[in-house]
Amino acid sequence: DAKTTQPNSMESNEEEPVHLPCNHSTISGTDYIHWYRQLPSQGPEYVIHGLTSNVNNRMASLAIAEDRKSSTLILHRATLRDAAVYYCILRPTGTASKLTFGTGTRLQVTL
Amino acid sequence: KAGVTQTPRYLIKTRGQQVTLSCSPISGHRSVSWYQQTPGQGLQFLFEYFSETQRNKGNFPGRFSGRQFSNSRSEMNVSTLELGDSALYLCASSLGRGDNQPQHFGDGTRLSIL
After folding, report:
1. Which value, in Å, is the radius of gyration of the alpha carbons in chain B?
2. pLDDT value, residue B1
3. Model confidence at A95, in pLDDT bands (50, 70, 90)?
4. Considering CB atoms only, which of B55, B90, B94 is closest to A43?
5. pLDDT score of B112 more than 80
6. Measured between alpha carbons, how far is A35 from B15 in angstroms, rounded to an integer?
7. Strand partners, B23
8. How far is B35 from chain A (nearest CA, A)?
9. Is there a contact between A64 and A77 (Cβ–Cβ < 8 Å)?
10. CA angle, residues B1, A98, B30, in degrees to nearest 5
């Protein structure tokens, strides 16, 4: 599976936007970019995914670079409840349901 | 809509024993995957079941096994428990295989080996 690289940790103030980067320079043309997050004492939670175009949903936005070698998860207004570990994962389309998690980015949100 | 349910939430066993963990997927979901989470290794894929058949397996010893029933419920079994098997075991379900639908995780079973 292609590898992703994320910063170990980031901090944000509450109600400010947060941009979580992910590098995936070895991405293949059929790899989808998925983001999950894991809140304390919970299982991972799906956030968003995309292939080439930017994507928006009620939780976040996903900005994908034109060459697809990097992407950014955008939380428009961080709240204390967004404090979690965020994982950027590449999933080849049409293959097994297996997710390969990296170490993720631990996001701290402060008042 | 009920989420993924894992039972029990907590379990304490001793070395050498065996354990069975249960996972009830979201209604209508047919694919169930299992993961192990430890502080040292992070989240690691164990195996995936679809239509009662194991479709994919991670790099774990044969002591780790699983099965899926006709109603898509799944169980995983670990035999001859070792101290290193202490972990959070997570189950995830999705509508189908490899269809890029989101995977929905339960909150896990925390297994402690004494």
Report:
1. 13
2. 59
3. low
4. B90
5. yes
6. 36
7. B6, B74
8. 9
9. no
10. 40
Q: Check whether B108 has a pLDDT greater than 80.
A: yes
Beta-sheet pairing, B19-24 with B42-50: unpaired
Strand-pair category, B19-24 with B5-7: antiparallel
**A87: chain B residues, CB-CB within 8 Å:** 43
| Ramachandran class of B95: left when φ > 0, alpha when ψ lies in -120 to 50, beta otherwise | alpha
* Beta pairing, strands A55-56 & B87-94: unpaired
Structure confidence at residue A20 as a pLDDT band (50, 70, 90): very high
**A64-90 residues labelled b (16+ CB within 10 A) or e (exposed):** beeebebbbbebeebeeebbbbbbbbb
Q: Which residues of chain B neighbour A36 with C-beta distances below 8 Å?
A: 103
* pLDDT above 90: residue A68: yes
Longest CA–CA separation in chain A, Å: 43
Query: How would residue B99 be classed by pLDDT, with cut points 50, 70 and 90?
Result: low
